[in-house]
Amino acid sequence: MAEERNESEARGPENSGEANEPIINDKRRIDPETGEVRDLGKAAGAESAESTTDDADPATGEAAEAAAEGLSVEDLEKLLSGEGAEDAPTEGTPGESDLAQERLQDLQRVQAEYANYRRRTDREKTEAYDATKAEVLRSLLPVLDDFDRAQKHGDLVEDTPMAVIANKLRTAVERLGLTAYGEAGEAFDPQRYEAIAQLPNPSVTTDTIADVVERGYTVGDRVVRVAKAAVFVPAS
């Protein structure tokens, strides 16, 4: 037993040395075997590159693969966002080039569809806003008619409280785009006037507005309410 223990102790340090053998980096500038001058900077750079590769963040693997396939990270981001899609590189094997071209065409089609969608929704929003505004202004027209009748009968005296209120209301609706129309002497337009009376008149050759009973209003190109008027017609 003593002899076996002695043999084990004798082998122990040797085995331990193999397990814990130190790693020696030869950094001598002169190669002892060839006598040539070593390029220590190149060797250090190779070790650093190998260490960097081993410790690289997995998140950067996609960027490295994209670069290896001919696409830089900036080109990849531009392609996904649609910016500079026409300039994205498509070089590669015939199959890869066809696939890249197909993806580029898909992206351009999606961009065109989205642009059309934006234009259509913007137009619909504008039309909905104009229609809502016109409806609100239409509800105020009876009040404006009352002020017009009061002014014709001399009841709307300047600088009186009622006259001040009338001027404020008219100013407010004009700022919203409401415009009044209808004057005697204008040519009769059935799209803008409603004839409530026809008066034969030998002095006119075409239908002409004789008197405006109720003024018409527009908001932009939209007619909110046609004007009601008496019309002179040529005498037969």
UniProtKB/TrEMBL annotation:
Coiled-coil region(s): 100-127
Primary location recorded for the protein, binned into one broad class: cytoplasm
GO terms (BP aspect): protein folding
Pfam name, any one: GrpE
Gene3D superfamilies hit by this protein: 3.90.20.20, Head domain of nucleotide exchange factor GrpE (2.30.22.10)
Extent of Basic and acidic residues compositional bias: 1-12, 24-41
Function field: Participates actively in the response to hyperosmotic and heat shock by preventing the aggregation of stress-denatured proteins, in association with DnaK and GrpE. It is the nucleotide exchange factor for DnaK and may function as a thermosensor. Unfolded proteins bind initially to DnaJ; upon interaction with the DnaJ-bound protein, DnaK hydrolyzes its bound ATP, resulting in the formation of a stable complex. GrpE releases ADP from DnaK; ATP binding to DnaK triggers the release of the substrate protein, thus completing the reaction cycle.
Name of the protein in its database record: Protein GrpE
Species name: Pseudoclavibacter terrae
Gene: grpE
